[in-house]
Structures are given as structure tokens and as C-alpha cells.
Amino acid sequence: MRASRYLTVAVSLLLVVLMVSGCGLVDRLTGKSRTEVQVQLPPPETSTPVAGAEAQKESTKTTEVVLYFSDATGNYLVAEKRSIPLVEGIARATIEELIKGPGPGSQLLPTIPKGTVLKDINIRSDGLARVDFSKELVANHSGGSLGESLTVYSIVNTLTQFPSVKQVQFLVDGQYVKTIAGHVDVSAAMGRNESLIKKEAH
Questions:
Q1: Which residues of the chain are modeled with pLDDT < 70?
Q2: Which of 68, 106, 132, 201 has CB atoms 3.0–4.6 Å from 171's, for a disulfide?
Q3: What residues have CB less than 8 Å from 104, skipping those under 6 apart?
Q4: Cα–Cα dist 197/79, whole Å
Q5: Taking the mean position of all CA atoms in its chain, how far away is CA 198?
Q6: What percent of the chain has pLDDT over 70?
């Protein structure tokens, strides 16, 4: 009787061992392992890279604007076409390009005194553009009535290429000024002046 009980216990233990080892054997035969089963797959790709690419594509759009610089003689304004990034504040971006001066290798001369910074620009619904420059516009100006006229109207003519701008009002460091170099009255809003633009030879 006792021998029969021992035999039953031994058979039970043998079955447990076989079941445990059998599970591992099945796993090995099917190419699975416990560690592999627990590995988590990476999440699926989202649309973020695509959205980023679209944003980059938008930022590379350009538009062509006209900048007015002095000719080599310092007597007339000459138009230079330039492609710049298409941004919401296109008038501001255009004046900043004007401040940079003519393109590389150009025979044209800059009209904005060195060191001048565009501090602010505001375009009203009635077409008046208030343009605020740093003090260098006055302090660093070379002087002369013609030179001053070229400075003033390079800004005015550049801005009035936009349909939303009809006149330009000058400010320096947030204050209205009567003149930039003592010759041209800029105390009132100023309109476009085509007479200073050099006519192309036909």
C-alpha cells in the first residue's frame, strides 16, 4: 500500500517535470522565447515628419520685390529686383533688404546710412505707412540735398510698390522729424516720386 502511494507521488512529480520542460521545448521548436514575447514593438510612425516637411516647404517660398538704390553717379534711383522669402511682414522684410544695400557685384550705391536699423513699421488701413528708423539714419548721413532726396525716396518708392501703401511718414527713434540731413522736409507724409527714378535707355 505504501509502495503504491510512493509510486503515485513519483508519477505526479514526473508529469509536472515533463509539462514544464515540454513548454520550453515547444517554445524552442516554434522559434519563440520568453524574452522575445516580452519585447514591445515601436509605435507606428506619426505624420509629424510629413508636417515638418510641409512647414519647411512653406518657408522656402519666395517673392520678388523692387528695391531702389542710387546709380553710380549719385544722381538717380535705379530699381533692383530681388527675390526674398515670402513672409507675413513683407514690407518690413523689404526695407530690411534695402538697408542691406545693393547685391554683390552691383554698380549701384546704397542709400541708407551705415548702421541704420529699422525699429518699427506700421501700415494703416488708409495706406499711411509709419516707418521708424534708428538714430543712425540722421547721425550717419553723408549730407547734401540730392543725397538726402535719394535716401528719402528710395524708402518711399520701395514701400509704395505695395498696393496697401500710399504714403510714408518718417520717424527716428519713435519721434517725428522735420528733416534727415537738413534739406528735405519729411515732417508730413510723403508720396511716391517717379522723377528721381532713372529712365531705362531704349
A1: 1-59, 201-202
A2: 132
A3: none
A4: 8
A5: 32
A6: 70
pTM summary value: 0.71
Q: What's residue 59's pLDDT?
A: 57
Does residue 18 lie within any of the structural domains?
Answer: no
| Contact between residue 101 and residue 69 where contact means Cβ atoms under 8 Å apart | yes
Nearest by Cα to 172 from 109, 128, 112, 82: 112
Residue 179's pLDDT is 97
Burial, 91: exposed, middle or buried (Cβ in 10 Å; 0-12, 13-18, 19+)? Answer: buried
Determine the pLDDT at residue 184. 97
Q: What is the helix (H) or strand (E) element at residue 171, kind and residue range? A: strand 167-172
Number of domain units in the chain: 1
CA distances (Å), origin 80, targets 34, 57, 83, 162: 72, 26, 10, 15
Query: Would you say residue 50 lies in a domain?
Result: no
* Amino acid letter, 138: V
Identify the domain containing residue 134 by its residue range. 61-196
